[in-house]
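Exercise 7.
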Amino acid sequence: MAGEGGQIKEEGQTICTTELMTKEKEDMMKKELFTMAMNGQWDQIVEAYTREARAHVMRITKAGDTALHIAISQGNEQKVKDLVQQITNPQVRSKVKEALEIKNDRGNTPLHIAASKGNVSMCKCIANVHQQSVGVPNGDGETPFFLSVLHGKREAFFCLHDICGVENGYKYSRRKDGDTILHCAIARDYFDLAFQITHSYQNLVNYKNEQGFTPLHVLASKPSAFRSGSLLRGYNRIIYHCIFVDNLQVETSSHHQTKGTKGPVDKKDLDVPENYRTCTNFFKLFWDIIKAVTFQLRWNGEQTDAENPEGHPGHQLVPANYRTCFEFAKLASLGMLISLGFGFNTIRKIEQKKQKHKWAVQVLHALLTRTSAYEYHAGAEPKQEIISKQEGDTLPYAVMSGCVTLHNVTELPTTSNGN
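Solution. The predicted structure, written as tokens, is:
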């Protein structure tokens, strides 16, 4: 009996020693991976991923990031592809789901970071391998699909939208506090993105957050998003009326893929002395307009979608046959303003402001045409009075004779020929 007891004790000590050695080995591997990542030695990390499947799920930073998290944060597209390739390599025997859904301390997976950065290549690399990763929530209940909108990453949104589909998109479009992707897009002034969401996910228009606010309430609480809520004086007002802004158009997946994605900024464009920056910006704009004209003419000739009248050329600011002249008129007016001494940056800021105003009105009309005061998400019953006005309160919005009133400020509806 004594001999058996001694044998059991020795076996227990052996197991403890083995576990201790294994832990020390893992700690050493984590330090090596961290050092290599900080020194940019990604080839060695790929080799480690090839040899050891355990490396795929090792959190190597204090924030709980893996090597894949770090590679995505650094924007190293090729190495991200190499790491994902090793994770999915059957010879390595990695647990793909565990490796691609592993979270850091904030609950973010590698795809969360890729979507936040708006890197389409990385999003495709991960989501095409493991589609369920698109719907993995972080600590705040935000999926990668949600974060692409929260950070205004238009290209990443369309990418993940195409991968997960509309049905899953609805499931992934809401976080813990009840905010949807449409709430966030409007709250952060991403009106071009909000416009696309109202058409792709129309039911989100009626969704309420925990405070009981719909996306329309969020927009109504932003008077500065409209021209009547912004104060423009002096020459700024003149510039404002000299700038033309196109209406937003509904984009399909094929349309968006045809347009392509914007690549990284060429460093050569940045190596320009400050005193030449205005000239380079002007000629860059000139070249962009030429490319835009070429694409628009080709697109108008190739695409006529009967089911998408808003995307039809007839709904543009000017007819297609006058498009070229109109684009060059825009260029001429911009050149005139610059020649009169108005800085390019000043003009660009005013252009962005007018763009925001015009697009906000488009989003407003899209919301109003889809909002039903008698439909409530999650089974809530309609109230007898949708909005009860107490003394001293103001209605967030009202519609009278085709005009939209926000906080006692009236915004006239835009027409296809208006600015």
